[in-house]
């Protein structure tokens, strides 16, 4: 199950899981059914053996989050992999014009509370006796943080995403303590990833993104997806839980601040 699969990182995660041999993938979307259907069509065309199912839910709604998990279990059975990539975009589109307080509220509701609600409901459903007794490797639950969440970053973005994503990472570590060894819980902390916002920047932000990575380039959604496949695969990461995997090209501690153009 991949949330936020209508585009960006979520779509790439779904694609990577299909390429890795996933036989059935649930694709969640909030409002853009057309894009989620396009993801499903791409997967079904490229990997005919992979079945897809679409799920709609507003991850800013407690009721929708719980319904999403229940529908996924009812339609798919217990997902072996749940990648919660759903998040609200407050940097592009109409939401970019909102006030700081409005953006922060959305991030708290969707990225933080939504992640917690989905994860706790997943654990509850996966822990039911008739499901927990299934003799398969522990399911892998993956949440999305941010590489600068705990280190801090100047500006409104740092003050919005920092506390929200740091809380997501802390929650994942705490949940892992609770549910191991029945369920593995990890988080991925992307760095500068060229998603919708990154694709439209130039000048200062482009130079900053490349200079802050030891690999001297932007990250891609495919980089994040590869990390998700690794954490999802019990053969590759079956002894890994309660961890945050940074996908940022290696943060460059030597980078020099660049004056804005």
Question: What would you report as the Rg, rounded to the nearest angstrom?
Answer: 18 Å
Biggest β-sheet: strands ordered side by side in the sheet? 1-4-5-6-7
Give the number of domains. 1
The CATH topology assignment is Rossmann fold
- Note the run of SSEs as H and E: EHEHEHEHHEHEHHHHE
- Helical segment count: 10
- Shape descriptor: globular
The SS-based structural class is alpha/beta
Kindly report the oligomeric state of this protein. single chain
Give your account of this protein's structure.
With 261 residues, the chain is an alpha/beta fold. The protein has one domain (2-247): NAD(P)-binding Rossmann-like Domain (Rossmann fold), CATH 3.40.50.720. 48% of the residues lie in helices and 13% in strands. The protein has helices at residues 8-19, 33-46, 62-76, 100-126, 129-132, 155-179, 196-199, 204-211, 221-232, 234-237; strands at residues 2-3, 24-29, 51-56, 81-84, 140-144, 184-190, 244-247. The strands form 2 sheets. The chain has a 5-stranded parallel β-sheet with strand order 1-4-5-6-7, with helices on both faces. Helix 1 packs parallel to helix 2 (33-46) and helix 1 packs across helix 9. The longest helix has 27 residues, at 100-126. The radius of gyration is 18 Å and the shape is globular.
């Amino acid at each position: 199950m991949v949330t936020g699969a209508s585009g960006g990182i979520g779509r790439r995660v779904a694609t990577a899981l299909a390429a890795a041999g996933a036989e059935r993938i649930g694709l969640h979307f909030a409002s853009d059914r057309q894009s989620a259907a396009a993801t499903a069509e791409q997967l079904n065309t490229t990997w005919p053996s992979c079945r897809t199912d679409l799920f709609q839910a507003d991850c800013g709604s407690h009721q929708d989050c719980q319904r999403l998990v229940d529908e996924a279990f009812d339609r798919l059975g217990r997902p072996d992999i749940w990648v919660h990539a759903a998040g609200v975009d407050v940097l592009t589109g109409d939401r970019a014009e909102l006030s700081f307080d409005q953006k922060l509220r959305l991030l708290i509701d969707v990225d933080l509370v939504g992640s917690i609600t989905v994860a706790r409901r997943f654990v509850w459903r996966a822990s039911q006796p008739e499901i927990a007794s299934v003799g398969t490797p522990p399911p892998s639950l993956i949440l999305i943080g941010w590489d600068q969440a705990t280190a801090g970053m100047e500006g409104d973005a740092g003050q919005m995403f920092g506390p929200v994503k740091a809380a997501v990472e802390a929650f994942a570590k705490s949940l892992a303590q609770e549910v191991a060894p029945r369920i593995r819980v990890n988080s991925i902390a992307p760095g500068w990833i060229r998603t919708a916002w990154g694709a439209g920047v130039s000048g200062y932000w482009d130079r900053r993104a490349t200079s802050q990575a030891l690999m001297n380039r932007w990250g891609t959604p495919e980089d994040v997806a590869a990390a998700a496949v690794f954490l999802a695969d019990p053969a590759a990461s079956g002894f890994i839980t309660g961890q945050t995997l940074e996908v940022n090209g290696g943060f460059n501690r030597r980078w020099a601040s660049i004056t804005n153009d």
